[in-house]
Amino acid sequence: MASIIESGWRYLITNFSDFQLACLGSFFIHESVFFLSGLPFIYLERAGWLGKYKIQTKNNSPSAQEKCITRLLLYHFGVNLPVMIFSYPVFKFMGMQSSLPLPSWKVILTQIIFYFILEDFVFYWGHRILHTKWLYKHVHSVHHEYATPFGLTSEYAHPAEILFLGFATIVGPAITGPHLITLWLWMVLRVLETVEAHCGYHFPWSLSNFIPLYGGADFHDYHHRLLYTKSGNYSSTFVYMDWIFGTDTGYRKLKALKSIGDEDNKKQT
Q1: Taking the complete model, does pTM exceed 0.90, yes or no?
Q2: What protein family is recorded (predicted)?
Q3: Which pLDDT score is estimated for 225?
Protein backbone atom coordinates (compact mmCIF):
# COMPACT_ATOMS: atom_id res chain seq x y z
CA MET A 1 0.00 0.00 0.00
CA ALA A 2 2.82 2.40 0.94
CA SER A 3 4.57 1.76 -2.37
CA ILE A 4 1.35 2.54 -4.29
CA ILE A 5 0.94 5.84 -2.45
CA GLU A 6 4.59 6.74 -3.04
CA SER A 7 4.30 5.89 -6.74
CA GLY A 8 1.23 8.09 -7.04
CA TRP A 9 2.95 10.88 -5.18
CA ARG A 10 6.03 10.60 -7.41
CA TYR A 11 3.77 11.06 -10.43
CA LEU A 12 2.27 14.21 -8.91
CA ILE A 13 5.55 15.90 -8.02
CA THR A 14 7.04 14.95 -11.40
CA ASN A 15 4.21 16.44 -13.44
CA PHE A 16 3.13 19.39 -11.28
CA SER A 17 4.98 22.17 -9.49
CA ASP A 18 4.83 22.77 -5.74
CA PHE A 19 2.68 25.82 -6.35
CA GLN A 20 0.21 23.90 -8.52
CA LEU A 21 -0.12 21.10 -5.99
CA ALA A 22 -0.32 23.31 -2.90
CA CYS A 23 -2.79 25.81 -4.35
CA LEU A 24 -4.73 24.35 -7.25
CA GLY A 25 -4.44 20.77 -6.01
CA SER A 26 -5.63 21.73 -2.54
CA PHE A 27 -8.53 23.70 -4.00
CA PHE A 28 -9.57 20.78 -6.22
CA ILE A 29 -9.45 18.33 -3.30
CA HIS A 30 -11.41 20.69 -1.08
CA GLU A 31 -14.14 21.26 -3.64
CA SER A 32 -14.40 17.56 -4.48
CA VAL A 33 -14.63 16.36 -0.88
CA PHE A 34 -16.92 19.21 0.19
CA PHE A 35 -19.54 18.85 -2.53
CA LEU A 36 -19.41 15.05 -2.78
CA SER A 37 -19.99 14.74 0.98
CA GLY A 38 -22.49 17.61 1.26
CA LEU A 39 -24.77 17.23 -1.74
CA PRO A 40 -26.27 13.88 -0.65
CA PHE A 41 -27.89 15.57 2.35
CA ILE A 42 -29.80 17.88 0.00
CA TYR A 43 -31.21 14.87 -1.80
CA LEU A 44 -32.02 13.11 1.49
CA GLU A 45 -33.99 16.15 2.64
CA ARG A 46 -35.84 16.59 -0.67
CA ALA A 47 -36.72 12.90 -0.99
CA GLY A 48 -37.63 12.50 2.68
CA TRP A 49 -35.38 9.47 3.02
CA LEU A 50 -34.11 8.46 6.48
CA GLY A 51 -36.48 11.03 7.93
CA LYS A 52 -36.59 9.31 11.31
CA TYR A 53 -32.96 10.33 11.80
CA LYS A 54 -33.54 13.98 10.91
CA ILE A 55 -32.97 16.23 13.91
CA GLN A 56 -35.48 18.93 12.89
CA THR A 57 -38.78 18.31 11.13
CA LYS A 58 -38.51 21.51 9.10
CA ASN A 59 -37.08 21.25 5.57
CA ASN A 60 -35.29 23.88 3.50
CA SER A 61 -36.93 24.93 0.25
CA PRO A 62 -35.19 24.05 -3.03
CA SER A 63 -34.65 27.77 -3.68
CA ALA A 64 -32.89 28.16 -0.32
CA GLN A 65 -30.66 25.19 -1.09
CA GLU A 66 -29.84 26.57 -4.55
CA LYS A 67 -29.05 29.98 -3.06
CA CYS A 68 -26.60 28.29 -0.69
CA ILE A 69 -24.82 26.48 -3.54
CA THR A 70 -24.59 29.63 -5.68
CA ARG A 71 -23.13 31.69 -2.83
CA LEU A 72 -20.72 28.90 -1.93
CA LEU A 73 -19.27 28.81 -5.43
CA LEU A 74 -18.84 32.59 -5.30
CA TYR A 75 -17.13 32.45 -1.89
CA HIS A 76 -14.93 29.50 -2.79
CA PHE A 77 -13.61 31.04 -6.00
CA GLY A 78 -13.62 34.60 -4.69
CA VAL A 79 -12.23 34.02 -1.19
CA ASN A 80 -10.93 30.48 -0.59
CA LEU A 81 -8.87 30.14 -3.76
CA PRO A 82 -7.15 33.55 -3.43
CA VAL A 83 -6.36 32.76 0.22
CA MET A 84 -4.75 29.47 -0.80
CA ILE A 85 -2.68 31.26 -3.43
CA PHE A 86 -1.53 34.13 -1.23
CA SER A 87 -0.80 31.89 1.77
CA TYR A 88 1.50 29.65 -0.29
CA PRO A 89 4.67 31.70 0.44
CA VAL A 90 3.89 31.58 4.17
CA PHE A 91 3.60 27.79 4.20
CA LYS A 92 6.79 27.45 2.16
CA PHE A 93 8.58 29.76 4.57
CA MET A 94 7.34 27.67 7.51
CA GLY A 95 8.76 24.51 5.97
CA MET A 96 5.99 22.89 3.94
CA GLN A 97 7.36 20.40 1.43
CA SER A 98 6.04 17.97 -1.14
CA SER A 99 9.14 15.90 -1.96
CA LEU A 100 9.76 12.23 -1.23
CA PRO A 101 10.12 10.44 1.09
CA LEU A 102 6.65 10.82 2.55
CA PRO A 103 6.40 11.32 6.32
CA SER A 104 5.68 8.30 8.50
CA TRP A 105 2.17 7.65 9.75
CA LYS A 106 3.37 8.42 13.28
CA VAL A 107 4.44 11.90 12.21
CA ILE A 108 1.23 12.48 10.25
CA LEU A 109 -0.97 11.27 13.12
CA THR A 110 0.88 13.33 15.72
CA GLN A 111 0.60 16.50 13.67
CA ILE A 112 -3.09 16.01 12.90
CA ILE A 113 -3.92 15.39 16.57
CA PHE A 114 -2.10 18.65 17.37
CA TYR A 115 -4.09 20.44 14.65
CA PHE A 116 -7.39 19.20 16.07
CA ILE A 117 -6.49 20.33 19.60
CA LEU A 118 -5.29 23.76 18.49
CA GLU A 119 -8.16 24.25 16.05
CA ASP A 120 -10.72 23.43 18.73
CA PHE A 121 -9.18 26.01 21.07
CA VAL A 122 -8.86 28.82 18.51
CA PHE A 123 -12.22 28.12 16.85
CA TYR A 124 -14.10 28.14 20.16
CA TRP A 125 -12.94 31.64 21.10
CA GLY A 126 -13.31 32.99 17.57
CA HIS A 127 -16.82 31.55 17.29
CA ARG A 128 -17.80 32.86 20.70
CA ILE A 129 -16.57 36.34 19.74
CA LEU A 130 -18.69 36.18 16.58
CA HIS A 131 -21.74 35.75 18.81
CA THR A 132 -21.26 39.13 20.43
CA LYS A 133 -23.98 41.57 19.43
CA TRP A 134 -22.24 43.66 16.75
CA LEU A 135 -20.30 40.86 15.07
CA TYR A 136 -23.33 38.59 15.04
CA LYS A 137 -25.49 41.24 13.41
CA HIS A 138 -22.98 42.30 10.76
CA VAL A 139 -21.00 39.09 10.13
CA HIS A 140 -22.06 35.80 11.74
CA SER A 141 -25.78 36.17 11.06
CA VAL A 142 -25.07 35.18 7.44
CA HIS A 143 -24.09 31.68 8.56
CA HIS A 144 -27.21 31.52 10.74
CA GLU A 145 -29.57 32.27 7.88
CA TYR A 146 -30.10 28.51 7.88
CA ALA A 147 -31.67 27.61 11.23
CA THR A 148 -32.14 24.11 9.80
CA PRO A 149 -28.65 23.33 8.52
CA PHE A 150 -27.72 20.83 5.83
CA GLY A 151 -24.22 19.67 4.95
CA LEU A 152 -23.30 22.46 2.53
CA THR A 153 -24.29 25.23 4.96
CA SER A 154 -21.12 24.38 6.91
CA GLU A 155 -19.15 26.80 4.73
CA TYR A 156 -21.92 29.28 4.02
CA ALA A 157 -20.67 32.39 5.79
CA HIS A 158 -19.73 36.05 5.42
CA PRO A 159 -16.34 36.46 3.67
CA ALA A 160 -14.96 38.10 6.81
CA GLU A 161 -15.95 35.04 8.83
CA ILE A 162 -14.36 32.72 6.27
CA LEU A 163 -11.07 34.51 6.86
CA PHE A 164 -11.56 34.89 10.62
CA LEU A 165 -12.47 31.30 11.49
CA GLY A 166 -10.39 29.89 8.65
CA PHE A 167 -7.37 30.99 10.66
CA ALA A 168 -8.22 28.30 13.22
CA THR A 169 -7.82 25.63 10.54
CA ILE A 170 -4.54 26.83 9.06
CA VAL A 171 -2.71 28.01 12.18
CA GLY A 172 -1.56 24.50 13.14
CA PRO A 173 -0.11 23.64 9.72
CA ALA A 174 1.39 27.13 9.46
CA ILE A 175 3.27 26.55 12.72
CA THR A 176 4.56 23.06 11.94
CA GLY A 177 5.19 23.37 8.20
CA PRO A 178 3.93 19.88 7.37
CA HIS A 179 4.38 17.74 4.31
CA LEU A 180 1.72 18.53 1.72
CA ILE A 181 0.16 15.07 2.06
CA THR A 182 -0.40 15.79 5.77
CA LEU A 183 -1.98 19.12 4.91
CA TRP A 184 -4.30 17.43 2.41
CA LEU A 185 -5.33 14.76 4.90
CA TRP A 186 -6.01 17.41 7.55
CA MET A 187 -8.11 19.40 5.09
CA VAL A 188 -10.15 16.33 4.11
CA LEU A 189 -10.83 15.43 7.75
CA ARG A 190 -11.88 18.98 8.61
CA VAL A 191 -14.22 19.21 5.63
CA LEU A 192 -15.85 15.85 6.42
CA GLU A 193 -16.22 16.81 10.09
CA THR A 194 -17.84 20.18 9.48
CA VAL A 195 -20.18 18.80 6.79
CA GLU A 196 -21.25 16.05 9.21
CA ALA A 197 -21.79 18.59 12.00
CA HIS A 198 -24.15 20.58 9.77
CA CYS A 199 -25.85 17.63 8.02
CA GLY A 200 -29.07 17.82 10.08
CA TYR A 201 -29.18 14.07 10.76
CA HIS A 202 -28.18 12.01 13.78
CA PHE A 203 -27.65 8.43 12.63
CA PRO A 204 -26.93 5.32 14.73
CA TRP A 205 -23.53 5.28 13.01
CA SER A 206 -22.75 8.94 13.74
CA LEU A 207 -19.28 9.38 15.21
CA SER A 208 -20.67 11.18 18.27
CA ASN A 209 -22.17 7.83 19.35
CA PHE A 210 -18.72 6.26 19.52
CA ILE A 211 -16.06 8.94 20.11
CA PRO A 212 -16.04 10.64 23.54
CA LEU A 213 -16.37 14.44 23.47
CA TYR A 214 -17.05 14.46 19.73
CA GLY A 215 -19.74 17.04 18.92
CA GLY A 216 -21.37 16.00 15.69
CA ALA A 217 -24.67 17.03 14.16
CA ASP A 218 -26.88 16.81 17.25
CA PHE A 219 -24.58 19.10 19.23
CA HIS A 220 -24.19 21.71 16.50
CA ASP A 221 -27.80 21.60 15.33
CA TYR A 222 -28.81 22.90 18.76
CA HIS A 223 -26.52 25.88 18.15
CA HIS A 224 -28.36 26.72 14.92
CA ARG A 225 -31.84 26.38 16.40
CA LEU A 226 -31.13 29.03 19.04
CA LEU A 227 -30.16 32.20 17.21
CA TYR A 228 -28.41 35.36 18.31
CA THR A 229 -25.90 35.62 21.16
CA LYS A 230 -26.91 33.04 23.79
CA SER A 231 -26.98 29.79 21.87
CA GLY A 232 -23.88 28.17 23.37
CA ASN A 233 -22.27 25.07 21.81
CA TYR A 234 -19.49 27.08 20.20
CA SER A 235 -17.03 24.21 19.82
CA SER A 236 -15.68 22.91 16.55
CA THR A 237 -14.92 19.16 16.52
CA PHE A 238 -14.64 18.21 20.18
CA VAL A 239 -16.79 19.78 22.89
CA TYR A 240 -14.41 20.04 25.83
CA MET A 241 -14.14 23.85 25.57
CA ASP A 242 -17.92 24.25 25.96
CA TRP A 243 -17.82 21.83 28.90
CA ILE A 244 -14.95 23.69 30.60
CA PHE A 245 -16.55 27.12 30.24
CA GLY A 246 -20.14 26.03 30.80
CA THR A 247 -21.46 27.19 27.44
CA ASP A 248 -23.27 23.91 26.77
CA THR A 249 -25.53 23.91 29.85
CA GLY A 250 -28.71 24.59 27.84
CA TYR A 251 -27.96 21.71 25.51
CA ARG A 252 -27.16 19.35 28.39
CA LYS A 253 -30.38 20.25 30.19
CA LEU A 254 -32.38 19.63 27.02
CA LYS A 255 -30.69 16.24 26.55
CA ALA A 256 -31.43 15.31 30.17
CA LEU A 257 -35.11 16.24 29.82
CA LYS A 258 -35.38 14.29 26.58
CA SER A 259 -33.77 11.28 28.23
CA ILE A 260 -36.28 11.43 31.09
CA GLY A 261 -39.13 11.71 28.58
CA ASP A 262 -37.87 8.70 26.65
CA GLU A 263 -37.69 6.66 29.86
CA ASP A 264 -41.24 7.62 30.80
CA ASN A 265 -42.49 6.60 27.37
CA LYS A 266 -40.79 3.22 27.70
CA LYS A 267 -42.40 2.65 31.11
CA GLN A 268 -45.85 3.52 29.71
CA THR A 269 -45.46 1.09 26.84
Answers
A1: yes
A2: Belongs to the sterol desaturase family.
A3: 87
